[in-house]
Specification:
Elements: E1 5-6, H1 17-25, H2 37-50, E2 54-58, H3 61-72, E3 78-82, H4 86-89, H5 94-99, E4 102-106, H6 109-119, E5 127-133, H7 146-158, E6 162-166, H8 170-177, H9 181-184, E7 190-194, E8 205-209, H10 211-223, H11 232-244, H12 249-266, E9 280-284, H13 290-298, E10 301-302, E11 304-307, E12 310-314, H14 321-336
Helix pairs in contact: 1-11, 2-11, 3-10, 12-14
């Protein structure tokens, strides 16, 4: 590997040669008219994999989440979510602006769902929806297993709530748990996943659910400016990603574990390597991480932050074993300095 080691995010992946060939040769039409054959093939493939009636190709994971909230919630209500979930902390307060809802963060999700529903018997805001996240990024990409996810979704449904799963990295969860993604959504009303993260496609995410919900999401995709025309050019890479890039995610998980072991050894208590199951390592530092990040960058390794005390490393297809070795050597230099 030459150049820097890019560990800020798995969104930095570059398309494979097979993806580039597929994009160049893609058969296209106007997706706003539902006439792009490659987009339609991708959506059919995804519906089969997720076990849903329909799916919709959208430009980004944030748009997929926002469409789900827009069509499943009601204005003037609350949407329950994990306290540090992407829809709450990392989507620029899009849900209140786009859908007229108030996000209600839960620090203890199972008990929090019950407590929030109980509060609605008083003068608290009504609740219309629950969102969950699998994998959970801020917890070093922790996957939620089939039984636990089914329990959480059931708590939402039993409380009369619609449920959406932000499964941006659901394929990482599938590899880590040995369970198909269709089961890792726990029977939620909708689920999404990103093609442009660990799977390596250059653009796009998928929103999956019942045909009527996805039809409504398609209308709202256009309202939000996400309607696309000859999108088969980029959808073709998504098909290749699903057909060729899933099994290799196990390599990313093993490399993330190597980073976690190295960080924990050099900065005890910053991260527990035993908790690393997918491709994300979040390490808590006593001092502000800016200097840490700057010095690593000087050694040719790029990482990022998710809050003022937490450094994040994310492995992906463009970081090989040599890149991990270089990262560990850079950590040694940083610790020694």
């Amino acid at each position: 590997m030459t150049g820097h080691v890019e560990l800020r995010s798995d969104t930095f992946t570059t398309p494979t040669p097979e993806m580039r060939r597929a994009m160049a040769d893609a058969e296209v039409g106007d997706d706003e008219y539902g006439e792009d054959p490659t987009v339609n093939r991708l959506q059919s493939l995804v519906s089969g994999l997720l076990g849903t009636e329909a799916s919709l190709y959208v430009p980004s994971g944030t748009m997929a989440n926002q469409l789900a909230i827009r069509v499943l919630s009601r204005p003037g209500t609350e949407v329950l979510c994990p306290a540090r979930s992407h829809v709450y902390q990392y989507e620029l307060a899009a849900s209140p602006q786009n859908s007229g809802v108030q996000m209600h963060p839960l620090w203890d999700v199972p008990d929090g769902i019950a407590a929030a529903l109980d509060g609605s018997n008083y003068e608290f805001p009504p609740i219309s929806m629950l969102t969950l996240e699998n994998t959970y990024m801020v917890m070093s990409g922790a996957p939620t297993g089939v039984d636990e996810m089914r329990t959480l979704v059931g708590l939402g449904h039993d409380g009369g709530l619609r449920v959406h799963v932000d499964g941006a990295r659901i394929w990482n969860a599938a590899i880590a748990t040995g369970s198909p993604p269709a089961e890792l959504t726990g029977g939620a009303d909708t689920a999404m996943f990103c093609l442009s993260k660990g799977l390596g496609a250059p653009v796009g995410s998928m929103l999956c659910g019942p045909a009527d919900v996805i039809a409504e999401a398609r209308v709202n995709r256009r309202r939000l400016g996400g309607g696309m025309r000859q999108a088969g050019v980029i959808a073709a890479a998504g098909i290749v990603a699903l057909e060729t890039m899933v099994d290799r995610l196990a390599d990313d998980h093993a490399r993330a574990k190597r980073i976690a072991d190295a960080v924990a050894e050099r900065w005890p208590g910053s991260v527990d390597p035993a908790t690393i199951q997918t491709n994300i390592v979040c390490a808590r530092l006593e001092k502000l991480p800016e200097k840490f990040i700057e010095r690593l960058a000087d050694s040719g390794v790029r990482c990022g932050t998710i809050d003022p005390r937490t450094v994040r490393f994310v492995t992906h297809k463009d970081v090989d074993d040599e890149g991990i070795t270089r990262t560990i050597a850079a950590l040694d230099q940083l610790r020694g300095g």
